[in-house]
Write a structure and sequence with these properties.
- By secondary structure, this protein is mainly β.
- The chain is 0% helix and 51% strand.
- It is built from no helices and eleven strands.
- A hairpin with a 5-residue loop joins strand 4 and strand 5.
- The termini are far apart.
């Protein structure tokens, strides 16, 4: 059974940083691109970053480009998202998910089930 467990969220002041983690199990992590998705209060899901299965290839939504960095450790089956220079509008539940394929060229993908999410709250 596939499982994704996010962690690392919390309350931070604007301008601060957080590092989110996503522990994956139940599938061959290194074979798939991975995505971070967020949902702000009373808003829809927003795909914010994709990382390809291997050999780099990272993509970001304009809303986070230059502030967030996605990375992965295929040996540890773990996905990361470094959040820097956080803004109040970054407040959201953050989810990771497995994309359907290994390689993409944009910050979106067809994805399978998300984890439970980790809450990021940015105060002014």
């Amino acid at each position: 059974e596939e499982q994704l467990v996010e962690s690392g969220g919390g309350l931070v002041q604007a301008g601060g940083s957080l590092r989110l983690s996503c522990a994956a199990s139940g599938f061959t992590f290194s074979n798939y691109a991975m995505i971070w998705i967020r949902q702000a209060p009373r808003k829809g899901l927003e795909m914010i970053s994709v990382i390809n299965a291997a050999f780099g290839g990272t993509y970001y939504a304009d809303s986070v480009k230059g502030r967030f960095t996605i990375s992965r450790d295929n040996a540890e089956n773990t996905l990361y998202l470094q959040l820097n220079n956080l803004k109040t509008e970054d407040t959201a539940m953050y989810y990771c998910a497995r994309c359907a394929a290994a390689y993409y060229d944009s910050p979106s993908c067809d994805y399978y089930s998300r984890g439970q999410g980790t809450q990021v709250t940015v105060s002014s």
